[in-house]
Amino acid sequence: MTTFPRRLLLTGGLGLLGAGAVTACAGAEPSAGSGSGPDPQGAESSANTDALGHVHGIVRDPSDGVVLLATHYGLFRIADHVLSPVGPTIDLMGFTLAPEGRYLASGHPGAGVDLPEPVGLIESTDQGESWTVVSRGGESDFHALTADAERVLGFDGELRMSTDAQNWETLAIPAPPAALAMAPGTGRIAAATEAGLLLSADGSSWETLPTPQLVSRVAWADDSTLLGSGIDGRLLTSRDSGQTWAASEEPVGEVVALGAGLTGDGSVEALLVVGTTVLRATEGGNTVEQLV
């Protein structure tokens, strides 16, 4: 395991939404040696990160423990610090895991991929090897997407919710969300916006949580543990559903994707993407290791 001080990961230009958060992901083809992630070891960036482009989402698949990256160039799995592409090339602007092993996503098809533009809500039941359109093909590009056993929630310029992934209701929200996260059991929804971190039970009424600073990304580790990436680069952790917060001692950097969960011993795990560097953090962001 490689660990290093958080101060070496700090990058400049911290902003709430980040590049490409609410606009389509512009894409140049990846080229060798073009990795842009911070390099705490002082070596050249690993060539396999060049294939990522922008990273839009990160999550650990509970079925096999593999970390997944949703990127401009499709889905990637991380095993033994090596990236492996999975399935077709789709600009996965939104990505989330639903119960029963379902992957849900949105975005834009790559060259030669037989999906509409934009893809709408798409689903994979074979861990990303293939995708089918569920609804809103040619209509929606959900830049933020989250789901539980009962609902799918996405933002494509409007906040939309569906209980069957087919029929959608438009909801009101005080500000456009850069990220959405649904608590796994209670279904409470957290939304990172420029108006603050918002919380809702049903997606129609919202309260603003008392965060110590604006939050750019948000994820639930369990029904009461909420993680956020502060705009100063620190990782924020709340164990009481966002009422009180603790910040990491040092910044980790400008987080472009955030995932969270619990380890086997009940510790809180954060999965972070800073540039194209993929990190795993524990102890509230005070212990960090590089995954790729």
From TrEMBL:
Leader sequence segment: 1-24
Biased segments, Low complexity type: 27-43
Superkingdom of source: Bacteria
Keyword set, alphabetical order: Signal
SUPFAM superfamilies in the cross-refs: Oligoxyloglucan reducing end-specific cellobiohydrolase
Keyword Signal set for record: yes
Spans annotated as Disordered: 27-48
NCBIfam families referenced in this protein's UniProt entry, alphabetically: glycosyl_F510_1955
Name the record gives this protein: Exo-alpha-sialidase
